[in-house]
Amino acid sequence: MSAPEAKRPKLADKANVLMVGTGEYTTGYVGGTAADSDKGAGVVALTMFDLRRRGKVDRVGMCGVNGKKFPGIRNHMQKNIGDVYNNMDLTCDTFPSDETVDPKAYLDAVSTFQAGDVAIIFTPDDTHYDITMACIEKGLHVMVTKPIVQTLEHHTNLIKAAKEKNVLVSMEVHKRWDPFYADARDRARSQFGNFQYMYAYMSQPKHQLETFKAWAGKSSDISFYLNSHHIDFSEWTLEGIARPIRVTGTSSTGVAHSKGMKTEDSITLTVQWENLNDKSLGCAVYTSSWVAPKGDVHSQQRFFYMGTNGEINVDQAHRGMTVAQDGKPFASVNPLFMKYTPTNGMFSGQGSYGVKSFECFVDACRAVNAGEKTVQDYDDGSLATVGTTVQGTAILEAGRLSLDADGRPMDIVYGEDGHTPVGIKPHEF
């Protein structure tokens, strides 16, 4: 007889959170120092510590592969969080031990949590599936950084497993909480008519190749890493309006190869979308790069969207705020994403969309645990749930297959509902 599942906590109870991954987005710690980006203090850990301060989170755990990094991570978090903000309790259970290197440490970490707890996964793309499955099997609610997985097969398996365990599984896409992107989405859906054209560009400076050298070109690429942002925006925006039917991938090379890295510098995915009401066609072009020169922002991010009745431009990188300070380069800053500057000694970034993304997920998990909401309630677009993000995975996988086939277009195959992708096949000319 199998052991009974642990009783789910009530909403009044605080969430216990396991963070899987110890890198730039979780802690801001890269290569023994603060990341040379706009996330030197990290995002995930800082947010969890603040949620604990505000009474929403109790136990916090952190799991990596190399436990020998944890002394440096603790010192980094003390310097960049504990010494900067008042009343921050940085207590955190860490896995594996400080003397151990263990790629499967997440299994031990997960075993110390119970059903209804929360896992937040920020690890290399090719590890998402196995870690997420282990968390689901334990009955944990799971948030996974984009892309949630790299293949349709894995995505379908996660949907099935999450349904069987009745847990909330979602992809972390903080742009859904960016007021600029949210308003653009609402305008496109309510005022712009059928989809016609979109161009999206996102880049990071070439020193990021060093940050990601452990996996860049080996287990993932710049399209999975960056194009996933605007592809999710399209899927979120065009839900019930249009569907992707064909993907063609092209690339540029040279810089990464000169560093001994077998990966593309930039990847462009051209996606044919089909409007559902009249079968008319639209086209979207998604370009991502990690060989940009270092400029006034860490990441260039912008898009142009056109429907039959209107168009909109969004420059996410430049929000009209620039900073010049002795000893630091001129910068365009975006406190709408993360406001690190304290107010009277306190962390005051709760309104930033980088924080909201995690807080809304934790709140959703607590509501499900309390019986106030069902897992299915969040398929309404309020979260990027595993069941509502399948088209994005199909686009990204088809793009990789196209690149590997020397740019041959790939068709997305749909099931009986005409909405959910079930396969990818080479386009027949």
UniProtKB/TrEMBL annotation:
<protein>
    <submittedName>
        <fullName>Gfo/Idh/MocA family oxidoreductase</fullName>
        <ecNumber>1.-.-.-</ecNumber>
    </submittedName>
</protein>
<dbReference type="InterPro" id="IPR036291">
    <property type="entry name" value="NAD(P)-bd_dom_sf"/>
</dbReference>
<feature type="domain" description="Gfo/Idh/MocA-like oxidoreductase N-terminal">
    <location>
        <begin position="60"/>
        <end position="171"/>
    </location>
</feature>
<dbReference type="GO" id="GO:0005737">
    <property type="term" value="C:cytoplasm"/>
</dbReference>
<dbReference type="GO" id="GO:0006740">
    <property type="term" value="P:NADPH regeneration"/>
</dbReference>
<keyword id="KW-0560">Oxidoreductase</keyword>
<dbReference type="GO" id="GO:0016491">
    <property type="term" value="F:oxidoreductase activity"/>
</dbReference>
<dbReference type="GO" id="GO:0000166">
    <property type="term" value="F:nucleotide binding"/>
</dbReference>
<dbReference type="InterPro" id="IPR000683">
    <property type="entry name" value="Gfo/Idh/MocA-like_OxRdtase_N"/>
</dbReference>
<dbReference type="Pfam" id="PF01408">
    <property type="entry name" value="GFO_IDH_MocA"/>
</dbReference>
